[in-house]
Design a protein that fits this description.
5-stranded antiparallel β-sheet, about 475 residues, disordered N terminus, 13 strands
Length: about 475
């Protein structure tokens, strides 16, 4: 989980994502205003009672300018959804005019659910490997069992129910086939295995306290786990569910984020723009690609500026220089930062982001990926030794500069181009197999997930195409020299 970023006494916390997809740094972006009759506050007695209940419990005002309503957009503000399949249709709306810089809400730590809310007799029996997300999932399950007797009943009852979340861990095998060309497919399988291992670790606790956890199976635990992972925030208490604040939906272009004031012991959100009464208020969960949004949150964006593609490249085992190449890559690896740059085996994952210009510097294609390709294309011990000497004489990183042999440099980048072209073809075939995009403004569950799969693959295809264009131009330029 990411560490917090401090602003004076305030900390900015991102959602506790536990995937390979990297969390990115903050960039100032302008939030465009939107307002729609499909995204409007609607009357609901239970919703209207929620904020007064939370303020009574907190003994403090949470917000005087926001109200809870139902948005047909769900967490993805770009698409209208029917309420029966919307995974999280509750939203926050401006009930009064809000100015840029206004504090829109403050939620005290005392009404946030964190791992230290877990009963000591349960916590003491948990194995050390059980993480904070699983601990919060246990709390949710225990409170759900209490029903209306739970002190958190008004909050727990408003959490999405099974079938209302569209994270890929809930997709059928047939649905997952749509995204098999994306690494999100493999990450979904890994995540399901991880959650299953967490369940097996806590199941003895469920058996030990049958009056609290009777009847809870893997599917119920996985649902609670996904609720936490998609809604909770990192805090000094580990991971926290922040009632009311977690009704805020995501807009990737928003500047507003959740801040926690360690001195005053509360989390708050500052307006990044002006809102008129009735406008839906949004924040940015993080600078997440559609891969991350789909895997951990269960939605995608039609055009996500943070899209990226995770690709894997390996040294062929039939390469006679395989042992030497692997040895050099491991010896000269850069310390890994969020799994981006290090070489740890004969196969490595690299993250490609959109390359803005085919004639620019290729920013978006990792230098570590280009270095890997340069090493792969070499055919003699002498060439490898020269690279090792060059690395030792500079900053210790291997093959981070163009190869002196121009034909070898072109060969290395042609190799990358072939890998990317293959992925582009696979993505195109998968997108075509889904049929034409639906022109309907609403979706059933199957159509919704098909639309999400299309968003994911289309975004990745756009990134791959930008990298392909740059590599084509780079190789053509070298050939002309």
């Amino acid at each position: 989980m990411p560490s917090s970023i401090r602003f004076g006494n305030l900390r900015w916390f991102q959602r506790p994502i536990v995937t390979i997809f990297n969390r990115l740094s903050i960039t100032k972006l302008k939030l465009s205003k939107f307002s729609s009759p499909e995204a409007s506050c609607c009357s609901d007695e239970d919703l209207c009672d929620f904020l007064p209940w939370l303020e009574r419990k907190a003994g403090a005002e949470i917000s005087s300018v926001l109200s809870i309503g139902k948005s047909a957009y769900g967490r993805d503000i770009g698409i209208v959804l029917p309420f029966d399949i919307c995974h999280d249709c509750r939203s926050l709306f401006a009930s009064k005019s809000i100015q840029t810089g206004d504090c829109m809400l403050k939620v005290p730590y005392s009404v946030q659910i964190a791992p230290d809310n877990l009963l000591p007799e349960i916590n003491s029996l948990l194995p050390d490997e059980v993480g904070n997300v699983a601990k919060l999932a246990i709390i949710i399950l225990a409170e759900q069992k209490l029903g209306q007797q739970s002190e958190w009943a008004p909050y727990i009852s408003h959490l999405p129910r099974p079938g209302e979340i569209h994270n890929t861990i809930f997709w059928s095998e047939m649905e997952l086939e749509m995204i098999k060309t994306s690494l999100v497919y493999q990450e979904t399988i890994k995540k399901n295995l991880h959650i299953e291992n967490e369940f097996l670790a806590v199941k003895p606790i469920f058996d030990y306290f049958p009056e609290t956890f009777d009847g809870i199976r893997f599917d119920g635990f996985r649902h609670a786990y996904a609720l936490v992972e998609s809604r909770a925030w990192i805090s000094t208490r580990g991971v926290s569910l922040i009632p009311f604040a977690d009704f805020l939906n995501h807009d990737g272009s928003a500047e507003a984020i959740v801040l926690s004031d360690e001195g005053k012991k509360h989390s708050e959100v500052i307006a990044d723009r002006e809102y008129e009464p009735g406008d839906q208020v949004v924040i940015r969960y993080g600078k997440f690609s559609n891969g991350t949004l789909l895997l951990d949150f269960g939605f995608t964006l039609r055009h996500n500026i943070y899209d990226e593609v995770q690709i894997q490249v390996n040294i062929p085992h039939h390469d006679p220089l395989w042992p030497k190449k692997l040895e050099l890559l491991q010896l000269h690896c850069t310390p890994a930062i969020e799994n981006d740059n290090g070489f740890s085996s004969s196969q490595d994952s690299f993250k490609i982001k959109e390359v803005k210009s085919a004639k620019g510097r290729g920013r978006g294609i990792p230098q570590s990926l280009r270095a890997f390709a340069r090493v792969l294309c070499l055919t003699s011990f002498e060439e490898l030794s020269d690279l090792a000497v060059e690395a030792a004489q500079s900053d210790g990183r291997l093959a981070r500069h163009p190869l002196k042999n121009k034909s070898r440099e072109i060969e290395a980048h042609r190799f990358l181009l072939a890998q990317i072209s293959r992925l582009m073809e696979e993505h195109s075939v998968s997108i075509e197999s889904m049929g034409p995009p639906s022109s309907s403004v609403s979706f059933d569950k199957a159509a919704l997930r098909r639309r999400m799969a299309r968003d994911l693959l289309t975004g990745e295809l756009r990134v791959l195409k930008s990298a392909s264009d740059w590599l084509e131009n780079y190789c053509a330029t070298l050939s002309e020299c």
